């Protein structure tokens, strides 16, 4: 099998159901999701298997979901079905809550960074936000774009933030607070 087809030499690419320009918003959206997936793979390569077994399992699951989302976005068929369910979203929410409990309470904005794994997760978070913005734009043109896929991307970026903080903590580090930030997060009360 050859990796090159020469089919894209004139600025067009194949999607499921036809061909589009390589700068088509749909291609931008699924290309950005592919970029997120690459940073997730990079983060996984920086995380010790034993110390981060739970996060490793999450990230592998997420990589499969990102491939699913890319396929969904690369389909022109207006009757396409989404692979995302409320269970997919609830799983992410559960994990976000668990990781938030493990990390110290937030009071200020934090600078992205820390360990290599944490830094990769912060990059995945910001690229996910870009992907989310592109999918929002695409949904304005293609009303069949899944609302659950949008919700998934929104939760996914939050997941990456929570996981990045936990990676730093488990590796003996801490968040670096943005020094010009006032307290913007108030501790939750038990009421």
UniProtKB/TrEMBL annotation:
<dbReference type="InterPro" id="IPR036451">
    <property type="entry name" value="CblAdoTrfase-like_sf"/>
</dbReference>
<comment type="similarity">
    <text>Belongs to the Cob(I)alamin adenosyltransferase family.</text>
</comment>
<keyword id="KW-0547">Nucleotide-binding</keyword>
<dbReference type="GO" id="GO:0008817">
    <property type="term" value="F:corrinoid adenosyltransferase activity"/>
</dbReference>
<dbReference type="Pfam" id="PF01923">
    <property type="entry name" value="Cob_adeno_trans"/>
</dbReference>
<comment type="pathway">
    <text>Cofactor biosynthesis; adenosylcobalamin biosynthesis; adenosylcobalamin from cob(II)yrinate a,c-diamide: step 2/7.</text>
</comment>
<dbReference type="InterPro" id="IPR016030">
    <property type="entry name" value="CblAdoTrfase-like"/>
</dbReference>
<protein>
    <recommendedName>
        <fullName>Corrinoid adenosyltransferase</fullName>
        <ecNumber>2.5.1.17</ecNumber>
    </recommendedName>
</protein>
<dbReference type="InterPro" id="IPR029499">
    <property type="entry name" value="PduO-typ"/>
</dbReference>
<feature type="domain" description="Cobalamin adenosyltransferase-like">
    <location>
        <begin position="3"/>
        <end position="167"/>
    </location>
</feature>
<keyword id="KW-0067">ATP-binding</keyword>
<keyword id="KW-0169">Cobalamin biosynthesis</keyword>
<keyword id="KW-0808">Transferase</keyword>
